[in-house]
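Build the 3D complex.
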Amino acid sequence: MQRFSGLSLIRRGLTGQRGWQPQWRQAEPKAAYDAIIVGGGGHGLGAAFYLAKEHGLTRVAVVEKGWIGGGNTGRNTTIIRSNYLFDESAALYDHSVQLWETLSQVLNYNVMFSQRGVMMLAHTVHDVQVSQRHVHANRANGVDNEWLTPEEARAICPLLQTDDIRYPVLGAAFQRRGGTARHDAVAWGFARAADALGVDIIENCEVLGIRRDSHGAACGIETTRGFIGAPKIGVSAAGHSSVIMKMAGVELPIESYPLQALVSEPVKPIFPCVVMSNTIHAYISQSDKGEMVIGAGTDAYTSYTQRGGLHISRHALEAICELFPMFRRLRMLRNWGGIVDVTPDRSPIIAKTPVPGLYVNCGWGTGGFKATPGAAHLLAWTIAHDAPHPINAPFTIERFRDGNLIDEAAAAAVAH
Amino acid sequence: MLLINCPYCGERPELEFVHGGQAHIARPGNPAECSDQQWADYLYRRDNIKGVHAERWRHTHGCGRFFNALRDTTSDLFLATYKVGERPPAQSQQKRATA
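Done.
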């Protein structure tokens, strides 16, 4: 692997940017591996990286139906935070934030992680009570979060309109360690680092079936590029988790919905943090390129179409225009949808399955990007040890049978 | 915005409707006799089909009645709508192409 450094950038810059090598190989599938990861998004590529780096499994393949990072990794609004209510969730998401904090150095790839702070607005008395409860719960769990008055919120984000709107801002919760990262760089950085450790990244390779041996254990996958054998298979397929897992006879408590986002034309740096509103339902930040990145809520019905209804994104824009009146004149450049896998309690599943040798990381719903390194790290651990890490032990499929839900529906960024 | 054919009122814009999730899920007659797994399956497990999906809709801002629909989740095309209690209509290839 060609290491990046300030010196190497200057040297290539002076010699016409010649001599850069491809960042990962175009691998052909081999007949067998020690482990296969299905899904070449950030979660899957990261799992392969951690399998190779921390668990010594280097005969690993990542198979991806399209191109890496072309699914939800490239379709989200790049927000990172860990201010979740319950102990299990706080541990899970903060594990991820801690990995984000050193990820660029670990990967030798700038993922542009920017801890610019995430501000979650409260518009009603109920909002205020719930937000303050979150602040206290987070602090008790060692997760930073603080309560801001409207004046303090405006001091941090001067564009914010707190009065003379239909739902005035009564205060806000602010997590300073939260922020954003460059989504494509996360996929590319994990791919490059995994490839350097010997992981095969196989694009344009769709999984058609999961083969099981005479004992019922998973032993390989049928793909559009032939059969690939492996005693351990990790599925990290986001919106298509139900489709893939059914191939092995595993039924999931998941429904897939489109989730839309938009970006505006790029403008000068004007927006210092991430602002989210649960009640009037929108979130916004500014990319380093200058675009305002805006997220909407999930669409109303299940779908695999990667678009969604115009009225849903219009609703989000109306909320943004109310909070930030100067954005009324901003033009939107692009609008897209990703397919998110939603569980009944809005918490993910990272677990062993009833099929030996088959592991799943799914159910991230509307909030998977922030968890990329954490989910990848824990999926790799679970595959390598054939047992969950203490952090992901509560996030099983069986919790729905046993009644141990981790009900973050109220704690999520947006009303569902 | 989708146009949805309410079996009682005819075609109306999507905004008048609320999606009601997967159709034809019967509540177990005697929950006390269910195993934990059967009850969890009733509450939480969903087919989440990529393809033709039978689902409930309610014409909330219209007649207020529930009905069922067949919709292709890869295109959002409605293939048929039908009243509660009726069986889902069989889908011929021709109907699928012209619906």
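Residues 38 and 235 of chain A are 5 Å apart (CA to CA).
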